[in-house]
Amino acid sequence: MLQRGMGVFRRCGAHYPAHCLKFGRLISDRIAKAALALVGWLGYSGTAMTQTLTLRRPDDWHLHLRDGAMLEAVLPETARDFARAIIMPNLVPPVVTSADATSYRERILAALPEGMDFTPLMTLYLTEATDPADVIAAHASGLISAVKLYPAGATTNSASGVRDFDKVRGVLEAMAEAGVPLCVHGEVTRAEIDIFDREAVFIEEVLDPIRRRTPGLRVVMEHITTADACAYVKESDGSLAATITTHHLMINRNHLLVGGIKPHYYCLPVAKRESHREALAALATSGFRYVFLGTDSAPHTKDTKECACGCAGVFSASVTMPCLAQVFEEAGALDRLEGFTSLNGPAFYRMPVNEDTITLTKGAALEIPAPLPTGDGPVVVFDPGRPVHWHVQRA
Ligand SMILES: NC(=O)N[C@@H](CC(=O)O)C(=O)O
Ligand SMILES: [Zn+2]
Ligand SMILES: [Zn+2]
C-alpha cells in the first residue's frame, strides 16, 4: 500500500516486480520512492494487470432525491458510494421552513435501506418570505447545512424562487453573520439573455453585487459550467466555492445537439462549448481547494425527458465515481480525485472528512446500467457516450 497525498493507492499483488526493486536500489532514495509510487499504480494480479485506487468515501454536495416512490428508488444509488449529500429542496411544494426540512429528512431516512450508511445534509429553499430567525435556528441546531437560492424561473421547480434580491437582503445578512452557506443556482432569467450567457451574466449582475454588499457571506456556486465561473471562483478569499457536476466534466453542447437532440444530456445550466468544459476539467483536476463534487444528479422519468418539452436534469448518481476516475485519469490527476470528491467539500462546509473508504478498480469498459425502475417510471442513467474503465469495488 502506498500513500500519496491523502489518497491511498493499492496494488493487488503482494510484491512489487523484482526488477523495479533492483532499479530502486541503484538510484537515490527519492527517485526510488517515486519509481515505486509509479509501480503502485500498476499492480499485478496473476497475469492480468489491475489498477486500484482507494479514497476516503466521497460526499455529494448537490443532489436531488425527490420524494415518494422516486426517492425510494434513487436513494440507494447515492448511498451505495456516498457518505453524505447536500439535499436540494426543490420539491413541489418546496422545502421552505425548518418544519419542512425536518419531515423531509425523516422521509429520506425512512427510505434508506437497512444496512446502508448515509447522512442527508438538509437545505432550505430561499423565498422572499423566508424568516431569518427560522434559518439561523435550523442551522444552529444542525438540522440544515445550507440555504438554496433559485432565481425564480431559472430551473426545475424554481417558481417560488427569488425575483427581487433586495427582499432577501435581511436573510443573507443574518446568514453571513451566522456562517450559514448559501448555495446558488447562478443563472439570470431575463428573456433577452441568451441561455448560454446566463451564468456569466449572473455572476456580474447578481452574485458579485450580493457578495460585495454582504461581506462574510459564504457562497457555493452550484454546478458551474463556464470558464467565467472558473475564473471567478479562483479569486476566492475563502468565502466562495463552486461545485462541478459529473456530466459537465464529460460533455459539451455538441454532445447535446449534434446528430440529433439528446434529451438525457439536457440540464440546467445547459452544457457550454468545449473550451468551457476544458476549463471545468482543468479546475476540478487542479487540486484547487474551493472546488468540489456536486453531481446535481437529478432524476426525471424517461417519458418526461423524451418529449416535446423535456425536463432539465441528468441522473448520474449510479455512475459518478467511475466517470470521475476516468476524467481524472485522463488528466493525469488520479491523485487529486480524493480532494475533489472527499476533502474539499467537508473543508468548506466545516465538517469532518469521512473515515471509511471506497475502492475503484480499472478494468473492462463499464456497462452503463439499464434505466432505473421507479414507482413513477424508468429513469435513464447518464451515459457519457465513451468508454469508462473504472468500477467501484463492491464488498
Ligand atoms: N440541473 C437541472 O437541470 N435540474 C435540476 C434543478 C437544478 O439543479 O437546477 C432538477 O431539479 O431537475
Ligand atoms: Zn440548479
Ligand atoms: Zn440541481
From TrEMBL:
InterPro entries: Amidohydro-rel, DHOdimr, Dihydroorotase_CS, Metal_Hydrolase
Molecular function in Gene Ontology: dihydroorotase activity; zinc ion binding
Binding-site residues, substrate: 64-66, 90, 185, 268, 300, 312
Cofactor: Zn(2+)
Binding, Zn(2+) 1: 62, 64, 148, 296
Catalytic residue list: 296
GO CC, alphabetical: cytosol
Family from the record: Belongs to the metallo-dependent hydrolases superfamily. DHOase family. Class II DHOase subfamily.
HAMAP family: PyrC_classII (MF_00219)
Main function: Catalyzes the reversible cyclization of carbamoyl aspartate to dihydroorotate.
Identification of the protein by name: Dihydroorotase
Lineage of origin: Bacteria, Pseudomonadati, Pseudomonadota, Alphaproteobacteria, Rhodobacterales
